[in-house]
Structure formats: structure tokens, C-alpha cells
Amino acid sequence: MPPVPIRFNVRTDFRKELQARVNAYLDGCGRPVRAPFAMYRKSFILLVWMAASYTGLVFFSTVWWEALAFSVSLALSVAGIGFNIPHDAGHGSYSRSAVINRVMAFFFDLMGASSYVWHHKHNVLHHGFTNIPGVDDDINVGVFGRLAPQQKHYAFHRAQHYYLWVLYGMTTLKWQWVDDYMNVATGRIGQAEIERPKGFELALFILGKLAWGSLFLAIPLVLHPVLTVLIWYLVTNLVLGVVIAVVFQMAHTVEEADFVPPPPGAPVERVANEWAAHQVATTVDFARGNRLWTWYLGGLNYQIEHHLFPSVSHIHYPDIAPIVQEVCGKHGLEYNFHPTLRAAIASHFRWLREMSRPPAIIPA
Ligand SMILES: [Zn+2]
């Protein structure tokens, strides 16, 4: 049963040509669709970075500025792992092996976010129904902010382009302490129904919570006072939450991205656009030429390509992007990107400011 009663329009020539062109590239590029060696090497570097940061923070920090440096480093390394290892594995683009993908997806659980819930929230709802208010949970920050024109405006949203940056720091804390349990207990994410984990998946859910709790709370508590652990746990998660949230926002909640309310029409609502064209309309690339960002973000700066080809390793995205851009141009679809990270952040700020105004006084 689909999670929400929404359908897209039927396939178009755009999607057929895009698929054919990208298939031709993948057939001729000489590298596998999933690039295991490059991913293992990258995973190793990220995991060593995280292990060194964790060891420094938990076992060797003696003064506050050492702990701060290791805490920020730990947060950045954990974010890098999230962008590259479990995110790709969840999409099945890390390895050809379903078992390896499931094992690698478990890194989300080690970060305190259930990979089971992530699959439904990200792979099904966000990727399937991008920027559709009420369904795509990534544009839902509750009453705290208004990210889409269709969302209700409250007076305090007037200042959201300033305060939301701080609230983004709550992202992983909310996953760890509220969302995962609520989603599993209620069998719902927003308006969508999800199947509750059973058997092996339920065991993994519990194991993940225990492993995360041991790593980030129990072991530090054996060695340090409660307040010290609490402070650095919060600092690490605040940095991690801001980084993860801002990376997402730069791709979907900027001025160029569309927000598409599904047209009413029971029992099945049909989005006017075809699915691939919808992905292009609701997604924006950023900092495409920057190799460092491309490496660290696991290709999430090529978000259009990621949404169109989530099961293709992100190693290919820089080569696929010109093809996508050309086919979009040929079919009259607007392909949006920000040249730099800074430009994307500035656009997100301006979008938040626009959404902070009550709907009636937004200039036409
Ligand atoms: Zn994704």
C-alpha cells in the first residue's frame, strides 16, 4: 500500500531521454555503477577521523578548549559519515550487495537515528514526494518555522530567518529522543503511514539504540562527571544538527525550488508534473565544482542528480550533471544551481525571510 494517496503524471520524453543518456554514460565510463573501492577508501578515512575525534574527546581531553576542538571534529566526522556511508547504503548505491548496504545503513543507528525510520522518512517520503507539504517530512519543522508557502504562518515566524539556524541544532537530538520512538510507536510520519518494525528490524532498532547509548553516553559517563558528558554531548549534537539541516536546506528550501501542493481529488491526488520533472523543479544543486565539498557531502551538492539517480554511486554525479543539465535545457525544464556554498546559504536565508512574512503581504 502506498504511504500517501498521491500519484505523479505519467512518464514523459524527458525522463526516457534522460535515462537513456545516463545509461549510455554508465555503460561507457569504465567504472561500476556502484563504486565499491572508492567508497571503502572514503569510508575508512571518515571512520578513522571519527575514531580519532571520539578518542581525543572521551579519553584525552583535559581542558575545555581541547574538548571543544575534538567535539566539533567529532560532529563534522559523524556528519561526513552520515552523508557518505548510511545515506548511500540506504539508497542501495553503496554496494551491489543488499547485505553490505544493510550493514552500512546501520551507521545511522550508531549516530542515534534509526536506519529503519530513515528509510521511510528519507527514501520513501522525501525522495518520493519532494517538497510536497504535509508529506515530505524534511520541510516540516512543526510550528517553529514556515518553510513552504502552503504552511500556516504564525506571528513569531517573523524572526525565523534568524532563530531557525539555532533550532537546526536540535535536529539529531529530536531524532534521538523523540522522532524515532514516536514514528515507530504510532506507525506514522506526518500524514503518512509506515509499517512498524518487526522481528529482525525491531531487533536492529533496539540494538542500534543500545549501541548509540553506550558509545555517546554510557562510556563517557564511566570516565567523566554527568555535567561534563552532558555539555559535550549537547555541543557535539548542536554542531551535527546544524550541519545536517543546513546541507539539506541548501538543496530544497531556497528561492529557486518549487513547493508543490498536491491537487485535491479523492481518492487519489495526482501531481500535475511527471516524477523526474518534479524532482528537477523542487531541487537545487550547489558548489558543483568544489571537489572538497563533493567529497565531504557525498555528492549531496549534486542534489538534482541524486534525486534523479539515487541508486547510482555519488562518485558519478559530477559526470552525470552536465548530461542532466543539457537534457533539461532541451525539454524546457529549469535546472537550478548555486555556484558556491555561500550563495546557497544566502538563498536559504532569503527564502526563510520571504516565508517569515504573512502570506497576505508577500509582494506579488
Ligand atoms: Zn537521499
List keywords for this structure.
binds zinc ion; 6 strands; two-stranded parallel ribbon; globular; 60% helix; two-stranded antiparallel sheet; 364 residues; mainly alpha
Walk me through this protein's architecture.
It is globular, with a radius of gyration of 21 Å. The protein has a two-stranded parallel ribbon. It has one domain (6-358). The chain is mainly α and 364 residues long. The model has no long low-confidence stretch (mean pLDDT 92). Helix 2 runs antiparallel to helix 3, helix 3 (64-84) packs across helix 11 and helix 11 packs across helix 16 (341-356). 60% of the residues lie in helices and 5% in strands. The protein is built from 16 helices and 6 strands. Residues 87, 91, 122, 127, 306, 310 line the site of zinc ion.
- What is the CA-CA span between the terminal residues? 40 Å
The domain count comes to 1
Helix content: 55-70%
> Averaging pLDDT over every residue, what do you get?
92
Radius of gyration: 21 Å
The helix/strand class is mainly alpha
What is the H/E string? Answer: EHHHHHHHHHEEHHEHEHHHEH
Q: Per the principal axes of the C-alpha atoms, what is the gross shape?
A: globular
**Which ranges are low-confidence, i.e. pLDDT below 50, for 5 or more consecutive residues?**
none
In which order are the strands of the major sheet placed? 1-4
How can the largest sheet be summarized?
Answer: 2 strands, parallel
Number of helices: 16
Task: Work out the strand percent.
Answer: under 5%
Bound molecules: zinc ion
Care to count the β-strands?
A: 6
